[in-house]
Each structure stands twice: as structure tokens, then as C-alpha cells.
Design a protein that fits this description.
It holds the Pfam family Exo_endo_phos. It comes from Nibribacter koreensis. By secondary structure, the chain is α+β, with helices and mostly antiparallel strands. The protein is built from six helices and twelve strands. It has a six-stranded mixed sheet. Helix 3 packs parallel to helix 4.
């Protein structure tokens, strides 16, 4: 089973790129972030024609997450984080697909930091950690994936010294991510590629992609029963080079059957 995550940076503008990537790589399940589209503007028909059933949590102009599947329609479990009802931003969607609980998330950026946006990011991470703890305690197979807007270590940033004061790399952010991992989650990319330079995001400016000046901020966290089946993980870098593409590249994992 192949599961992918992709911050599309506007699903209406990037639909041709998304459909091309789906056709070329054919993942079984896809989590999308940053739809930037209200609920009624989601391209459900185009994705159905591509072979994917979908559920989504849209929001006009900003945010938005979706789960696509060609192995049975996702059974929605949760929209938004439980216990975080006052949050009106579309950043979390959870479903059961082919026996696995899939959590698709678009974690707040948090800049400028310090400030209200950074405080919101840390509060969101706290709510997310509480929910993640409940999920891992359930001992069910769980995949939590998406754009975390977290640079976990210096290895995950081109010239990390430039990011010291950024919300994605501040000590509070990295500590919250490490506390999350300490619950028992496996960072799939780092588990299989512990020392490699791997980036998932490249700014549009200063030829960042051409210079491989990127960040690793799109992550797969796997519960123990899922991590035991992990066969492969990687990044579809080529998609980042396509015309009118997102500033993120798709990230994927492959799980053994059974």
C-alpha cells in the first residue's frame, strides 16, 4: 500500500499538476493540504475520473485538507482536532482507509515569531499531541501525515543557521515535535534515511529548487503497528520542477501488505 502527502498550494491552480502526478505515480491514498478552496469548490468529479474517492475539509482562500483513496472511499472519523472546537481553521481531517486510520494535517506556520501566530501554532501542536497520544494508546494502525511546518533538526534545512529565529525551527517548535515522537511515533523518512539530505519544500524565489536549497517539513509519523510494515519512503522531487507546480514536493511511504 502506497500512501502519499502533498501540499498542493491551491488545488484549483494546481489541479493539472495534481492529476498528472496521480497518473504517473498512482498512490493508493493521498493526503492533500493547503487546498485554498471552499467546500463547494473542491474538484471531486475530476478526482473521481482519475480513480479517487475523496473527503475534504475546505476553507475559502486559506488552509484546507483532503484525503483521497482508490482502495475504497475514506470513512470520515473527525474534522478538526477534538477539544479544539474554537478553532475555525480547516487544518485536520481523519478517516479510516483500508483498515488504517489516516490523519491529514496542515500545521500552522507560526510566523512571525514570537507573536500571536506563533502562540497559535504552539497551542495547535499541544492539541494535536493530546489527540496523537489517544491514537497511539488505542494500538490501532495510524498514519499522521501532512505539512507539519516543523524543521526537526539541522539536517532538515539548507543552511539551518538562517532559520534559527523562524517559527518552523525555533526551540519550542522542535521540542514539541520531539515530544510527539517520544509518544512512540516513527518519523518514516528519517527511519529509513537517517543521514541523507532530503527536502520536501523549496521556495519559489532565488532558484531554491535548482540549488537544492530546501527544507524537510512534510512528515509521516507512524504508529508501531504501521512502522513494522514500512518498506520504503521517499520524495517525488520531479513534480517540484513541473510548470505551475506547488512549492512542496509529494512525499510517500510504502507499506507491506497484511
Amino acid at each position: 500500500m502506497k500512501i502519499a502527502t502533498y501540499n498542493v498550494n491551491g488545488i484549483s491552480a494546481r489541479l493539472p499538476v495534481l492529476l498528472r502526478w496521480l497518473q504517473e505515480t498512482a498512490p493508493d491514498v493521498v493526503c492533500l493540504q493547503e487546498l485554498k478552496a471552499p467546500q463547494e469548490k473542491f474538484p471531486e468529479q475530476a478526482l473521481q475520473e482519475a480513480g479517487y474517492d475523496a473527503i475534504w475539509h475546505g476553507q475559502k482562500s486559506w488552509n484546507g485538507v483532503a484525503i483521497l483513496s482508490k482502495v475504497g472511499k475514506p470513512e470520515e472519523i473527525q474534522k478538526g482536532l477534538p477539544g479544539n472546537d474554537e478553532d475555525d481553521q480547516s487544518r485536520y481531517l481523519e478517516a479510516r482507509v483500508n483498515g488504517i486510520i489516516i490523519g491529514c494535517l496542515y500545521l500552522p506556520n507560526g510566523n512571525p515569531a514570537p507573536g500571536p501566530k506563533f502562540d497559535y501554532k504552539l497551542r495547535w501542536m499541544e492539541h494535536f499531541a493530546q489527540h496523537a497520544a489517544m491514537l497511539i494508546a488505542s494500538q490501532e494502525p495510524v498514519v499522521l501525515t501532512g505539512d507539519y511546518n516543523v524543521i526537526p533538526t539541522e539536517l532538515d534545512a539548507y543552511k539551518p543557521e538562517r532559520w534559527v529565529e523562524d517559527a518552523l525551527f525555533r526551540p519550542e517548535t522542535r521540542a514539541a515535535f520531539q515530544e510527539l515522537l517520544a509518544q512512540g511515533w516513527t518519523d518514516a523518512i528519517r527511519h529509513l534515511h537517517p543521514t541523507e539530505t532530503i527536502y520536501t519544500y523549496f521556495d519559489y524565489f532565488r532558484n531554491a529548487f535548482g540549488r537544492n536549497a530546501g527544507l524537510r517539513i512534510d512528515h509521516f509519523l507512524l504508529s508501531p503497528t504501521v512502522s513494522a510494515k514500512l518498506k520504503a519512503a521517499g520524495v517525488d522531487r520531479d513534480a517540484r520542477s513541473w510548470e505551475k507546480t506547488s512549492d512542496h514536493a509529494p512525499v510517500w511511504i510504502e507499506l507491506a501488505d497484511g
